Amino acid sequence: MKHSLWRTKPVAQILSEAESKEGGLKRVLSAVDLTAIGVGAIIGAGIFVLTGTAARDAAGPAIMLSYVFAGITCILAALCYTEFATRLPISGSAYSYAYASVGELFAWIIGWDLILEYTIGSSTVAVGWTHYLSECLKGFGLTVPTWLLALPVGPLQVNVAAVLLIVGLTGLLCFGIKESARFNALMVLIKLAVVLFVIVAGIPWVQPANWHPFFPFGVSGVFQGAALIFFAYIGFDAVSTAAEEVKNPQRDLPIGIIASLLICTVLYVAVSAVITGMVPFSQIDAGAPLAAAFGSVGNALAQKLIGLGGFVGLTTVVLILLMSQPRIYYAMARDGLLFPWFSKIHPKFRTPVNASVVTGLIAAIMAAAVPMEELHHMVSIGTLFAFVVVSGSVLIMRYKTEETPQHSVGAVLQLALGLTVFCFGLAHDFSKPVQLFGLSLTTPAFFLQPVGLLGLSLAQALKILTGLLIMAKPLYTLFTAKQVNIPTGFKCPWMPVIPILAMAGNIYMMVNLNIDAWIRLVVWLVAGLIFYFVYGQKRSKLAE
């Protein structure tokens, strides 16, 4: 049993599948295509919606630093993704990376978890897209029929527009990856033009006085704001899911992943600086911050263009998320962990058409009737969990040898546990009661007494100390053990510092999410484990 749960897929086998020309996916994407895919997936709801919420309720003008912190955290994880994507240029992204490093059980868990990011993420963004559809048309004197946004069907209010968007984009993705990439590139150009217009047009209206105080919620507000706006960065990892369709993965994948993140981080910081400079942070509109800011200065043209930018921007995000999930299904089915039907490739278009149709169907059903607020946190915690696994998997692969294949697994798992306890103590306010299953849990007053020079409570100090003690041994192991030499491909620099920092940053943002998100993640993963033990474990190709 232990062997079957920890069995890993040989790297040589993964590379042979990636290089197979017969019956596989078609290699047609370039570095420019990948960068456009990354930018198309990243710039969307975050810049047009979440900036207002995070600035008004969490960070104030320091939202600029929140974007920097979230961007740096993503870049650290992106360096780990890039090493894997060039070493293992195959569909499956984090799922395939975990399969080669940690083992089959963790590969299944991360593959199941990615459904939260891609399928539920596309549903979430599709619902937000309908709001911008209405705003975009309103700017040109048109209105969306009420039944398109809320069609009564029994007790439900069905979002017909979101369903139509998902169905149309699913059809495009079935037709071909190159055609989808061209459509995405056109939409990205429009979106970037709108974002640059917002920055340039807003600069004359900036009043530096609105940036004071810069930290109205304290320095902690920067990190709380980063956890809120992290949704704005979701999508860069979608580049790695297309690795099997890239012409020159060793060269183009690093360019696509890193370039898209750098471009978007610079634009996010610039836009947040303009918006908080135009409007006092307490008066920023949480629902449509960009449009409201320009409306307050009477710039009607900017309002129209922002509505168009949001409409186009969210279209590309849904497209990329719907593109990514079928390739996860495809990889898992090819390994035997999912039904073989998911691994079927269309004979003419060379796309995973069956997996695409199922992804579109599930996303459409969820977008039709599930409120966006119910989905948002599930997407964020699912993505952060994937980033943690990829960062840890890079560490494992760098120290993994044939003589001691599981030597580094235990160290990285212990490190992750220690980081979780440490970050929980650092971020959690133990003075506030926690609501769990209808019960209000409070911390005894004794543990709330301040200790030390940093003003931490006793409960926080104990958690931080416990986390440090748990991390001590694995950190010593990782910094003293000999690393495996990687002859070719992109190498994550400053090993093991970068993956450890990536794990720490993403775990810290995870513990800043509410407990409901954690409960939903656990329930989702338990359901996935049941499916794995009932179906996947016995039918795995490695079991043969």
In short:
The protein has 544 residues and is an all-alpha fold.
Overall pLDDT score? 83
Which class do the helix and strand fractions yield? mainly alpha
For this structure, the CATH topology of the domain at 25-373 is: Amino acid/polyamine transporter I
Morphology call:
globular
- Poorly predicted parts: none
The CATH class of the domain at 25-373 is identified as Mainly Alpha
Number of strands: 6
Identify the strand order in the major beta sheet. 1-2
Describe the protein in words.
With 544 residues, the protein is mainly alpha-helical. The protein has a domain at 25-373: Amino acid/polyamine transporter I, CATH 1.20.1740.10. It contains 21 helices and 6 strands. The chain has a two-stranded antiparallel sheet. A two-stranded antiparallel ribbon has the order 3-4. Helix 5 packs across helix 17, helix 7 (104-139) crosses helix 21 and helix 17 crosses helix 21. The longest helix is centred in the first third of the chain and has 36 residues, at 104-139. The protein starts with a helix and ends in a 5-residue tail after the last helix.
